[in-house]
Amino acid sequence: MKKRVPVLEIMSRDLITLTTNDDLVTAEELFKKHNIRHIPVISGNTIVGMLSYTDLLRISFADAVDEYEERVDTMVYNMFTISQVMARDVVSVPSHTTIKEVAQFLAKKEFHALPVVDDGKLVGIVTTTDLINYLLKLY
Predict the structure, then answer these.
(1) Which of the two ends of the chain, N or C, has the fewest CB atoms closer than 10 A to its terminal CB?
(2) What CATH number matches the domain at 7-138, 2.30.40.10, 3.10.580.10, 3.40.30.10, 3.10.290.10?
(3) Any idea where the CBS domain is (predicted)?
(4) What are phi and psi of 39, to 5 degrees?
(5) In the predicted model, what is the mean pLDDT of the chain?
Protein backbone atom coordinates (compact mmCIF):
# COMPACT_ATOMS: atom_id res chain seq x y z
CA MET A 1 0.00 0.00 0.00
CA LYS A 2 1.27 3.47 -0.84
CA LYS A 3 1.97 5.47 2.30
CA ARG A 4 2.96 9.00 1.35
CA VAL A 5 0.42 9.78 -1.40
CA PRO A 6 -0.58 13.47 -1.29
CA VAL A 7 -4.24 14.40 -1.11
CA LEU A 8 -3.91 16.24 -4.43
CA GLU A 9 -4.08 12.78 -6.05
CA ILE A 10 -7.69 12.25 -4.96
CA MET A 11 -9.14 15.73 -4.36
CA SER A 12 -11.79 17.24 -6.59
CA ARG A 13 -10.36 20.09 -8.64
CA ASP A 14 -13.42 21.10 -10.66
CA LEU A 15 -15.01 22.99 -7.82
CA ILE A 16 -18.57 24.11 -7.48
CA THR A 17 -18.48 27.20 -5.27
CA LEU A 18 -20.78 29.84 -3.85
CA THR A 19 -20.27 33.39 -2.66
CA THR A 20 -22.02 35.10 0.22
CA ASN A 21 -24.00 37.02 -2.42
CA ASP A 22 -25.64 33.81 -3.65
CA ASP A 23 -28.85 32.56 -2.08
CA LEU A 24 -29.83 29.25 -0.52
CA VAL A 25 -32.15 28.35 -3.40
CA THR A 26 -29.14 28.50 -5.72
CA ALA A 27 -27.18 26.40 -3.23
CA GLU A 28 -29.84 23.68 -3.17
CA GLU A 29 -29.97 23.66 -6.96
CA LEU A 30 -26.18 23.17 -7.11
CA PHE A 31 -26.25 20.38 -4.53
CA LYS A 32 -28.85 18.48 -6.53
CA LYS A 33 -27.57 19.24 -10.03
CA HIS A 34 -24.03 18.11 -9.24
CA ASN A 35 -24.96 15.41 -6.72
CA ILE A 36 -22.65 16.85 -4.05
CA ARG A 37 -22.98 17.42 -0.31
CA HIS A 38 -20.44 20.22 0.38
CA ILE A 39 -19.83 23.56 -1.32
CA PRO A 40 -17.01 25.94 -0.41
CA VAL A 41 -18.07 29.56 -0.02
CA ILE A 42 -15.45 31.88 -1.47
CA SER A 43 -14.51 35.51 -1.78
CA GLY A 44 -12.23 35.76 -4.80
CA ASN A 45 -10.04 32.66 -4.50
CA THR A 46 -10.16 32.65 -0.70
CA ILE A 47 -12.43 30.30 1.21
CA VAL A 48 -14.63 32.07 3.77
CA GLY A 49 -16.97 29.23 4.70
CA MET A 50 -18.34 25.79 3.89
CA LEU A 51 -21.97 24.98 3.23
CA SER A 52 -23.21 21.41 3.49
CA TYR A 53 -26.47 19.95 2.28
CA THR A 54 -27.09 18.96 5.89
CA ASP A 55 -26.93 22.67 6.81
CA LEU A 56 -29.82 23.31 4.41
CA LEU A 57 -31.85 20.40 5.73
CA ARG A 58 -31.30 21.60 9.28
CA ILE A 59 -32.98 24.95 8.58
CA SER A 60 -35.70 23.61 6.30
CA PHE A 61 -37.48 21.48 8.92
CA ALA A 62 -38.52 17.91 8.21
CA ASP A 63 -42.10 18.78 7.25
CA ALA A 64 -40.91 21.13 4.51
CA VAL A 65 -39.86 18.20 2.33
CA ASP A 66 -42.48 16.97 -0.10
CA GLU A 67 -43.75 13.37 0.10
CA TYR A 68 -41.19 12.14 -2.44
CA GLU A 69 -38.35 14.02 -0.72
CA GLU A 70 -37.28 15.41 -4.07
CA ARG A 71 -37.36 19.05 -3.13
CA VAL A 72 -37.25 21.16 -0.02
CA ASP A 73 -39.76 23.98 0.35
CA THR A 74 -37.59 26.92 -0.64
CA MET A 75 -39.71 29.50 1.17
CA VAL A 76 -37.71 29.00 4.36
CA TYR A 77 -34.49 29.66 2.41
CA ASN A 78 -35.54 33.26 1.88
CA MET A 79 -35.36 33.78 5.64
CA PHE A 80 -31.60 33.09 5.79
CA THR A 81 -28.43 34.06 3.95
CA ILE A 82 -25.52 31.81 3.08
CA SER A 83 -23.43 33.71 5.63
CA GLN A 84 -25.90 32.80 8.37
CA VAL A 85 -25.97 29.10 7.53
CA MET A 86 -22.43 28.24 6.44
CA ALA A 87 -19.70 27.00 8.75
CA ARG A 88 -17.23 29.84 9.23
CA ASP A 89 -14.37 28.21 11.11
CA VAL A 90 -13.23 26.16 8.16
CA VAL A 91 -10.28 23.85 8.62
CA SER A 92 -8.27 23.31 5.46
CA VAL A 93 -5.22 21.31 4.41
CA PRO A 94 -2.46 21.99 1.88
CA SER A 95 -2.29 19.78 -1.19
CA HIS A 96 0.89 18.04 0.00
CA THR A 97 -0.93 16.61 3.05
CA THR A 98 -0.98 12.83 2.82
CA ILE A 99 -4.16 10.89 2.23
CA LYS A 100 -3.48 9.04 5.50
CA GLU A 101 -3.27 12.33 7.44
CA VAL A 102 -6.56 13.52 5.90
CA ALA A 103 -8.24 10.20 6.72
CA GLN A 104 -7.02 10.35 10.33
CA PHE A 105 -8.26 13.92 10.68
CA LEU A 106 -11.72 13.27 9.19
CA ALA A 107 -12.11 10.13 11.30
CA LYS A 108 -11.86 12.30 14.43
CA LYS A 109 -14.08 15.18 13.32
CA GLU A 110 -17.81 15.60 12.76
CA PHE A 111 -17.54 16.84 9.20
CA HIS A 112 -16.94 15.03 5.95
CA ALA A 113 -15.10 17.46 3.69
CA LEU A 114 -11.91 19.48 3.80
CA PRO A 115 -11.01 22.32 1.49
CA VAL A 116 -7.51 22.05 0.03
CA VAL A 117 -5.74 25.42 0.13
CA ASP A 118 -2.30 26.33 -1.20
CA ASP A 119 -0.84 29.80 -0.60
CA GLY A 120 -4.23 31.09 0.57
CA LYS A 121 -5.98 29.92 -2.63
CA LEU A 122 -8.67 27.23 -2.74
CA VAL A 123 -7.37 24.54 -5.10
CA GLY A 124 -9.60 21.58 -4.28
CA ILE A 125 -11.83 19.73 -1.86
CA VAL A 126 -11.44 16.24 -0.42
CA THR A 127 -14.36 14.32 1.04
CA THR A 128 -14.88 11.06 2.86
CA THR A 129 -16.31 9.73 -0.42
CA ASP A 130 -13.00 10.54 -2.15
CA LEU A 131 -11.20 8.58 0.57
CA ILE A 132 -13.50 5.59 0.26
CA ASN A 133 -13.17 5.55 -3.54
CA TYR A 134 -9.37 5.67 -3.19
CA LEU A 135 -9.41 2.70 -0.82
CA LEU A 136 -11.70 0.75 -3.12
CA LYS A 137 -9.22 1.19 -5.99
CA LEU A 138 -6.51 -0.35 -3.80
CA TYR A 139 -8.50 -3.56 -3.31
Answers:
(1) C
(2) 3.10.580.10
(3) 11-67, 86-139
(4) -135, 120
(5) 88
